[in-house]
Amino acid sequence: MPKILNLEKLSLYQRWVLVVGVSLLAAAACFLAAQRGGNLLSASLLFFLPLSLSAVLLDLNATAALSVLVILGAFLNLLSASAPAWVLTVFILGAVVNYAAWYRWIKAGESLEFQFQKAREELELAMNDARIAHEKVQGAHQANQIKIQRYTALNELARRLAMSLKTQEVVVLLIETISKTFMAPGGVYAFLLFDSSIGKALHSVRYSVDTEMEVRLNRERLNPAETFNAWVVSQDKPLYINDTANDFRFQNYPVENKKIRSLVSAPLMAGHEMLGLIRMESCFPSSFRQEDARLLSNFCDLGTVALEHASLYRQTIELAVTDGLTGLYVQRYYKERVRDEVFRALEHKLPLCLLMIDVDKFKNYNDKYGHLVGDTVLKVVAQILRETVRTVDLVARYGGEEFSVLLLKTPWFGAKNVAERIRQKVQAQEIMTSQQATHVTVSIGVSELNPSFKDVESFIDSADQALYQAKAEGRNCVRFAKKGVAL
User: Fold this and answer.
1) Which of 56, 289, 339, 377 lies 20 to 30 Å from 325, alpha-carbon distance?
2) Claim: this prediction has a pTM higher than 0.85
3) Which domains does the chain have, with CATH numbers?
């Protein structure tokens, strides 16, 4: 029953059955009234029921056809029953009024259906516009999220660079952050740090997102003269290439690596000096955008400041531990290093020798030729010491015209040879003054470490006492301290 009452859900077949069934009932009522000689007016009016159902359930054509049949049948019944004319007139007028009402109702329904269809189409268009707007907002949101992540990485990089005081730390931190920030498909990230005085890369780092982090400093060198690097170096500005195959700037250049399809590179500029460059490349075209080039420039600006701070820090440390005139270690730092090496040598039973060196009659020489020439003498002696000993050995200006050398893993006979070479080189070295070529000599005391020394000061003092012996015995000679007891 609920299915029948819900007329909108009836099929066309079910609607015809319902209309025809009600029409048969109305026809039967009229027939029975005619057989019994009754009044046909009330029975004929029953035909308006199937007409109404037809208007509701069927289309206008079916309703009109059924109305004609009903009116015709009713008219014949009325004539056969000799009904009054006014009954026939009322019946016909009722049918016409009912038909007109059905017609208006159907037209109103069609108008409503048309308006509904139009409203539905407008709603669909509005929904499409809303969906497109939502997609745009979602895309803008994702783009903003990417920007937020990138600038958060930029802020984090600035914070970490502020705590990095070594050049190598700055280089590695920059390339790690940049590679994780951009992560282009097939991307390779490179960092070149230049030495402007010699025009080559001091540090070269390459990292690919397809492999684990590989940092190779001074091992894998990238060529600053490579096509794209040379362009950045010559132009002092960022380079952005969407597709190397279609870039007119490099059509006549011999590109060394044909696999590079898209590239972004930016210089690290400290004023008018280029400290280096950072480069991102991919084997796929359109892997980077213009905003990537702008963001990379921001990374480079931070890297420039960090490298300058690292350089200033390094210079400050060097000034704190090295002598400004000779470039050798100062006494305070040298004694700390001697103490460390003494403990290491005693622990591992390694030979260790210490030389104390003094320029003979330096005060008289200084008074005769002036302080500028005296400073030249100290520089010359310092240079001879650096050239004679190994890079692992420690050389210091101990004070005034006195120098000291710590020879690591060197027994006394090795120290003797080194000391003698130093003495001979200094004696043979010409030192030019405004008037003539002059010479100086040095006296050297040598001490070898052994467990009998009470402390580090005793070890240094034994070499110093051997130096005094060399000066007392005529200068320009080498003397050795005894085991544990200075001469």
Assistant:
1) 339
2) no
3) 2-124 (no CATH), 164-319 (3.30.450.40), 331-480 (3.30.70.270)
